[in-house]
Design goal:
Layout lengths: L2 H8 L3 E5 H13 L6 E6 L6 H8 L4 E4 L2 H9 L7 E3 L6 H10 L3 E4 L2 H14 L3 E6 L25 H12 L4 E7 L9 H20 L6 E3 L16 H11 L6 E4 L3 H4 L3 E12 L4 E5 L8 H5 L5 E5 L9 E6 L8 E8 L7 E4 L20 E6 L2 E6 L4 H19 L1
Parallel strand pairs: 1-16, 2-3, 2-9, 3-4, 4-5, 5-6, 6-7, 7-8, 8-9, 11-13
Antiparallel strand pairs: 1-10, 10-11, 10-15, 12-15, 13-14, 16-17
Helix pairs in contact: 5-6, 8-9
This protein binds pyridoxal-5'-phosphate.
The site of pyridoxal-5'-phosphate has 19 residues, from α10.
């Protein structure tokens, strides 16, 4: 990939996505379940750029959404409503209402109170709400605590006893229709054992529900499949699919998967430009134009992204030394990489952060009144902008209008 031309054409910092690679990842994922009834619902929160979702929707992807905004994004780019599911612990009344009116496939329910709200709203709309209960299997996924979701101490899902109560309640309500069962134990999973244990546990529970004549059709295994950021060993797609299929032996479910990171993570790059080098008494810092507001993962999860110098103004061969790569934000936590070996760098050199396609731009913010960066896609060798860099006016227009209105009022 020619990052120098892209940086010259679109400026930096810049997100670049390889759309062909995204398609390939999606198709590989889908093909791992070849011959089975399976619906892949891409988890929009990983990267919710409309062009990215559209690329996947053309391959008949569904959408796993965690806000009504994401449901709207999915609908906007043509994801079929019967391939959209809505998860999350805190759905508001307005969100539930719109999801039911939109007639999406189902809502993943995470508490008794939520189920009652859904029933109440469905009754008002004179609809029957399709639901699935998120079971918390209480299994340690062995990932970072911030992205671990399947333990009793986490806010997600309900335990087996509660789930049973919810299913019986739903079965007896004229406004609720239990159609699925769901779990999601965490993100960036690199160990198959907790997944196997969870699928088996939830499959056993599903069998007991079927015995009670609760007629489930969908078995939703969540997302979470990890990718290799550094040199960690990851789960093979084949093994992932086989462990699920084995646990569901004899059960006639449509399998739903909600991969996010696996589909888009490896296809994304954050391109940054070196501004300065700075040496303190004990450390070497490379200061770049990208920062924690553009790529939050290092600061938030101590995540490691592979770093590559992709352009040097003076390509002399000099020795490498340890440094931290930091941004311009006024926080000591503002770093993009720590203790990496890099040659001496000068203003204008380019550094790329790899595997930045998931939870990169989608987590970015305007902190320090920094513009959210541009997103560019590469498809069949051609580059095109997928979202323009924000400008200052975009950031202040609402506040400015309010302030000007108030000043007029004072006159
Ligand atoms: C975040 C999330 C996903 C996607 O997780 P990845 O690790 O990106 O695959 C899927 N399902 C639910 C419910 C989520 O919260």
């Amino acid at each position: 990939m020619d990052f120098l031309s892209l940086a010259q054409k679109y400026k930096t910092p810049l997100y670049v996505y390889d759309l062909d690679r995204i398609k390939e990842q999606f198709l590989n994922f889908k093909n791992a379940f070849f011959g089975r009834k399976v619906l892949i619902c891409y988890a929009l929160k990983a990267n919710s750029n409309l062009s990215v979702i559209h690329t996947l929707s053309c391959l008949e992807s569904g959408a796993d959404c965690v806000s009504i905004g994401e449901v709207r994004r999915a609908i906007l780019v043509g994801v079929k409503k019967y391939r959209i599911i809505f998860s999350g612990v805190g759905k508001s009344d307005e969100e539930i209402k719109e999801a039911l009116e939109t007639d999406i496939l189902f809502l993943n329910v995470e508490s008794q109170q939520e189920l009652e709200r859904i029933e109440f709203i469905a009754k008002e709309l004179d609809k029957k709400a399709r639901i699935s209960v998120r079971l918390n299997p209480n299994i340690d996924p062995k990932t970072h605590p911030y992205i671990s979701t399947g333990l009793d101490e986490n806010k997600f899902g309900v335990d087996k006893e509660t789930a049973l109560k919810l299913y019986l309640y739903a079965k007896n309500s004229p406004f609720l229709e239990p159609v699925g069962i769901h779990f999601h134990i965490g993100s960036q999973l690199t160990d198959l054992a907790p997944i196997t244990a969870s699928v088996e546990k939830v499959a056993d529970f599903a069998r007991s529900l079927l015995a009670l004549k609760i007629d489930l059709k969908f078995f939703d295994v969540g997302g979470g499949l990890g990718i290799a950021y550094a040199n960690e060993k990851t789960i093979e797609l084949y093994d992932y699919a086989q462990t699920i299929l084995r646990a569901l032996k004899g059960l006639d479910f449509t399998i739903i998967c909600e991969p996010g990171r696996y589909i888009v993570g490896e296809s994304g790059y954050l391109v940054t430009k070196v501004l300065y080098e700075k040496h303190t008494k004990t450390k070497r810092f490379v200061i770049v134009d990208g920062a924690m507001n553009d790529l939050m993962r290092p600061t938030l999860y101590q995540a490691v992204h592979k770093v590559r110098v992709c352009f040097k103004n003076k390509p002399q061969k000099d020795s490498e030394s340890l440094c931290d790569i930091v941004g311009p934000i006024c926080e000591s936590g503002d770093y993009l990489a720590k203790n990496v070996m890099l040659p001496s760098l000068a203003s204008g050199d380019l550094i790329v952060f790899e595997n930045a396609g998931a939870y990169g731009y989608s987590m970015s913010s305007n902190y320090n009144t920094r513009k959210r960066v541009a997103e560019v896609g590469i498809e069949r060798g051609e580059d095109r902008v997928l979202k323009h860099r924000e400008n200052f006016e975009d950031m202040v227009s609402d506040e400015l209008k309010i302030l000007q209105g108030a000043q007029n009022g004072f006159k």
